Fold:
Amino acid sequence: MRKERDVPTMFGFARQSVPQEFNPIYKAFRNARVVTGCTWRTIDTYDQTLGEFLEWCLEEGVSPRTISNVDLRAFLAYLKQRNLAPYTVHKYARSLKAFFNFAQKEGMLLQELEMPIPRRPKKPPKYLKTQQEIDAVMGACLTDRDRAIVRLLLDSGLRRMEITALNWGDLQWNNERQVGRVVVRNGKGQKQRRSYFTAKSWHWLKLYRDSLDEERKTPTAPVFQTRRGERLQDSGYAELFKRLSWRSGVHVSPHMMRHTYGRKAAMVMPLPALQKTMGHSSITTTMIYAELADDSVEEAYASGMNGNGSIANGSGS
Structure:
């Protein structure tokens, strides 16, 4: 388990001086985020984005007593002048909004601030578009463990941090229905949910599990392990998918597996059900996959109308 880092002033890493009046506010905000279950990756993002904002405040002579909406807009303009990507500017704005909403709710600021949130441009999710690409990635796997990882990601839509945390006791197989269940105990936002997997995943999971010693397949043992029996960590998954990309000639990542699942499942599942399996807090996010699934309609039309359909073959009226 990762230990909390020392925070000599308010950040988890060395940083230049910042307005000291902001220290207790940020420390309280940071502690509140830790208590509510934010991941360390999210905490790191706050350290980076808010740390840079507070350094800017120091240079501009801005303090909690004087800060205004004009200052917030000036900081966003400063970010855009640095030619940061719109998505990055949006990330900074969201961090600032969370920080100042907390400070106002806790009575740490006298004035009310309204953080403008720039519109975030839509970035189409990257996914494996063809069965040939999926087969190439599966074919690039050299072990049953790696095949089980890829297949389970494709079948369940799990995030990388969720598959990392899986124990054998979190997997169940229903032989009557021929479907497996995944209990995600600590999903995004510390939420628990269920996802599912097919017989294809179960096939590779069983082969992999049968290769392990008894002590490495108890209910509390991690599902995916290193050769030494330790839990496979984020860095291990990153290295694995780098190797799979190189061997298959198809760029692939764990999150692309999740997007591939979402697109395929949107063709056969009601959106509320898909929302539950993917752990989305809003169905608006899930609807992205319905839009991706529309591509299959175009593919079917092109295939049917350009040689395989009755109209194209001249048999229609």
Notes: The first strand starts at residue 171 and ends at 174.
